[in-house]
Amino acid sequence: MARMPAIAFFLLAIGWVGAQDAGVQKAPPGVAALVNDKPLYETAVQRGLDRVPPEKKAQARKELVSHLVENMLVDQYLQQQKVAVEPGEVDKRLGQMREEVIKQGKEFTKMLEELKLSEAELKEHITAEVRWEKFVDSQANDKVLKETFQQNKEVFDGSSVRARHILLNMNAAEAGGEEKVRGQIASLKKTIDDEVNGGLAKLLPGTDSLIKEKTRTALVDEAFANVARKKSECPSKDQGGDVGWFGRDGDMVENFSKTAFTQSVYQVSEPVKTQFGFHLILTTERKLGKEVKFEEVQGEVKEYFAEKLKERLAEHVKKFSRVQIFPAPAGL
Description:
This protein is an alpha+beta fold. It has helices at residues 8-14, 42-49, 57-80, 87-103, 108-114, 119-139, 142-151, 153-156, 177-201, 209-231, 254-262, 298-318, and strands spanning 31-35, 38-41, 160-168, 242-247, 272-274, 277-287, 323-325. It has 12 helices and 7 strands. Helix 2 (42-49) packs across helix 3 and helix 3 packs across helix 6 (119-139). It is globular, with a radius of gyration of 24 Å.
């Protein structure tokens, strides 16, 4: 993989203070977050929440702000790396968008009004998009994409798994909250293990290994489902934690998906941390995908590579940036 440019002069340019969410500051009017002192405006956040049901807006806002902040961090970094975008490139893409809207029988200006978006803001978004595409092109050579394909074939071949899970949410405001929840989820795993081992202990000595494994599988499934119904804080608890079938990428968050795909069927995972809390995961079924060649999915491989590249870059830059996220204004 091509080596990532050094980050040193980026840190100097933003006046790094070495902390995120440093200090407590009152939100400037109309600002949802400050990213290295650059504002993320509340209008941009609310635009993304327009079609979200009221009861889900609080959680959706948190996730959306996080996503927009990461995009800003990445674009700031690329600007410091002098990834150039010519005005003509932006105008060309803007013209293509305008033509597409007109083809659909709509007015471009009216569409912008409906989206609560100015043409200047749209140009900024297009510029950032083009800049990102150029950066990806500079990183995604044929060798890198083929390696990505070989290392992640289950992402592209249609493989899927079915799983149950138990979720305990984390209260970030509570002192020691993370370690407390980690201990609680580990205790639930021990409960399941003890119940399974107790059931196996009742088998007669010399029981056939196939019968023993079939019994163990049934015991694990029943014990896990029972604990999920009683203790899980996910709506899936009503189904014993069953979240159904899902693919390797895109359906579930990465840590969850990676664990479900890499562990053996009917083995209870160790505690898995995601942004939602701590999980125990039980993979119950697995479907292998079909044989697929790199050339057949090259576009998908590049999209996957770009997605993971952005995640890694955002996480890296975030460590050295000033990010302040403010609560939603009253009434929103």
